[in-house]
Amino acid sequence: YFVLCIFNASLFFIVCLSVPEGSIDWVSALAIASSAWIVGFWAIGVPGGIGVREAFIALLLQVYIPLESAIAVAVLWRVLQVLSEIAGVILVLVTRQKKFIKSNHYGHESI
User: Fold this and answer.
1) How many CB atoms sit inside 10 A of residue 110's CB?
2) Measured between alpha carbons, how far is 29 from 47 in angstroms, rounded to an integer?
3) Contact at 8 Å (CB) between 57 and 13?
4) What is the 3-state secondary structure (H, E, C) of 60-78?
5) What is the DSSP letter of 109?
6) Residue 80 and residue 60: Cα distance in Å, rounded?
7) φ and ψ at 18, to 5 degrees?
8) pTM over the 0.85 mark
9) CA-based max dimension of the chain
10) pLDDT higher than threshold 80 for residue 24
11) Scanning 1, 22, 81, 100, which has its CA 20 to 30 A from the CA of 72?
């Protein structure tokens, strides 16, 4: 999980740098991304912490960039995360389908 957290924070840092009005250091981006994930995770009753994580990101980011830009970064970050999860699901489905076709082609039973 450590490597995934570092990768996640690095991508969040890049998204934050896309806002021209301010600057943020990598360690602050790591802290914001990690703490926002934890807050969203513990938002009991809110599926996926949707809205909670973004609000927390915007709250913390407004120290570095204007609030409007912080909200835009938070929403963009959620959209990118959802798109990456959809891409992962598609990759798994395509891989499983290829295995299924290959196993049926050679006369083996499907998985």
Assistant:
1) 9
2) 24
3) no
4) HHCCCCCHHHHHHHHHHHH
5) P
6) 19
7) -70, -10
8) no
9) 62
10) yes
11) 1
